[in-house]
Inverse folding.
């Protein structure tokens, strides 16, 4: 699981804070701000180059300044909370202490905390279908992130497909950046979308956002009840075969952005031992998990969007600082209800489970094919059996991509999460304090024997 | 931010300052890594989760290029 880096010496440093927040997206920033204003020493650790999470990833060119983002960023800056960017949390060796890898500087850092707030957000759900591993196929948020990172898509013909509100938002964003959107294919039926829209009657702002995006995408077909079947191409994508269930057709394109709504990043919560439910990490009214002193906020507790993340973050920050946040509970519960309605609306249709061909790769890290995994789908099979027999989920992403796919395809759930949570050089693991202790202990035993 | 120039497999690629190394590879039209069975792969998730965008950056192997910002003169080797 570790990379063969040539680094021989790895520095280690130690920090201590009253509250440590993991993730600098909307939930993490709101949590850190609330806790810091309440007088706590707060550190925020984030994997990305800049704060803001995926939704507020800073873009190039025509960056649409988001008022909410500006307000949250300013409050965070003034709060006194400290931001540590480019940190991957890799282990929690003991309660009250975690280890983070700073890849850019090749430093392993230890952070001690009294209270921990997890705000690790969500990732896209990917489903395997023939050709989905070809160059030119991205996630929906994935392609948007690359464009914000400087990928030039001007004049490129793009199909946007999958499930969830991200599809329209990203299609509009890509068009603004000069891409030609061939079509947007949403697997959810028009009927379900209409029901969902009707349920938003008390939240006109969200309906207006949708109408605004549709207007911006004038002339682009938005096909509901439509999904991708296969990507065509040899070394790179040349088109995508779409279907509406009765008819299939080819859409020639240079890029496919495809993702099926979102799944929470629960790995760190799992490693800590927090109880996890069907939607995400389970929390009480104060956003506290099943572990005392460990709080959770944002998409991690169930996908509900940015408004829910901000309010959950504020509650978690106030609670971690020992303050009451009961005045915010009603608002939080309303956002959670919106999230549940969204999950119902964009629930995956069963046809998607039939998309992979026997030779379709499901685990991209280890090139494990669908047929080899289907053979493990027996009463005695499952995740662990598949891992042992096929190496599925044992590559560098550690099942983050194939895990949710296997849950959709076979109902398997990845129960075992082990450190390091991300691949790090062997030298970094050897330099960890407890590893050095173990090493010297075994060496002293060696010499006394 | 002024433009930066990085070398991708020896070829100069110029792009806006603040761009990611993954964007440099995508703009250059090269794939990132070669899979276990020899297939070319490019960046998928854009947020440091899938690790498909791994490449060797300034001699350091297995770097997640989507989470790395380009610096002038950076050297990237792909395809391993």
């Amino acid at each position: 699981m570790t990379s063969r880096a040539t680094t021989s010496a790895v520095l280690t440093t130690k920090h201590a804070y009253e509250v440590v927040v993991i993730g600098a997206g909307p939930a993490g920033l709101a949590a850190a701000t609330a806790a810091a204003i309440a007088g706590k020493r707060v550190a925020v650790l984030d994997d990305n180059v800049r704060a803001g999470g995926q939704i507020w990833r800073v873009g190039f060119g025509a960056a649409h300044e988001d008022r909410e983002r500006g307000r949250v960023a300013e409050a965070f800056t003034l709060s006194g909370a400290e931001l540590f960017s480019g940190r991957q949390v890799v282990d929690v060796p003991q309660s009250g202490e975690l280890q983070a890898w700073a890849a850019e500087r090749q430093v392993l850092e230890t952070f001690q905390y009294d209270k921990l707030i997890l705000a690790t957000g969500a990732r896209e759900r990917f489903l395997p279908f023939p050709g989905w591993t070809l160059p030119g196929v991205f996630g929906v948020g994935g392609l948007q992130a690359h464009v914000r990172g400087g990928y030039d898509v001007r004049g490129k013909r793009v199909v946007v497909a999958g499930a969830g509100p991200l599809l329209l938002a990203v299609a509009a964003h890509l068009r603004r950046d000069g891409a030609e959107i061939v079509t947007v294919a949403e697997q959810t039926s028009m009927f379900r979308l209409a029901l969902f829209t009707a349920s938003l009657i008390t939240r006109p702002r969200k309906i207006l956002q949708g109408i605004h995006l549709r207007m911006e995408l004038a002339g682009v077909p938005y096909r509901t009840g439509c999904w991708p079947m296969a990507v065509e191409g040899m070394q790179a994508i040349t088109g995508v075969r779409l279907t509406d269930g009765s008819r299939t057709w080819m859409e020639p394109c240079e890029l496919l952005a495809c993702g099926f709504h979102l799944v929470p990043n629960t790995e760190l919560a799992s490693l800590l031992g927090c109880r996890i439910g069907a939607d995400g990490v389970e929390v009480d009214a104060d956003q506290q998990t099943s572990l005392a002193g460990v709080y959770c906020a944002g998409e991690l507790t169930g996908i509900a969007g940015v408004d829910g993340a901000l309010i959950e973050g504020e509650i978690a920050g106030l609670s971690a600082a020992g303050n009451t946040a009961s005045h915010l509970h009603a608002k939080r519960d309303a956002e959670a209800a919106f999230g549940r309605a969204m999950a119902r609306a964009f629930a995956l249709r069963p046809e998607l489970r039939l998309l992979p061909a026997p030779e379709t790769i499901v685990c991209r890290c280890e090139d494990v094919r669908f047929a080899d995994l289907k053979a493990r789908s027996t009463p005695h099979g499952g995740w662990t059996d598949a891992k042992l027999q096929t190496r599925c989920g044992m590559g560098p992403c550690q099942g983050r991509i194939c895990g949710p796919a296997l849950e959709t395809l076979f109902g398997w759930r990845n129960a075992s999460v082990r450190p390091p949570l991300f691949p790090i050089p062997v030298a970094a693991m050897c330099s960890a304090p407890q590893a050095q202790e173990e090493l010297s202990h075994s060496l002293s035993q060696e010499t006394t024997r | 931010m002024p433009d930066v120039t990085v070398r991708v497999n020896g070829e100069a690629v110029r792009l806006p300052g603040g761009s990611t190394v993954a964007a440099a590879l995508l703009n250059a039209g090269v794939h990132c890594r070669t899979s276990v069975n020899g297939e070319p792969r490019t960046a998928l998730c854009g947020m440091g989760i899938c690790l498909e965008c791994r490449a060797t950056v300034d001699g350091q192997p297995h770097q997640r290029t989507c989470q790395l910002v380009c610096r002038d003169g950076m050297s990237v080797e792909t395809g391993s």
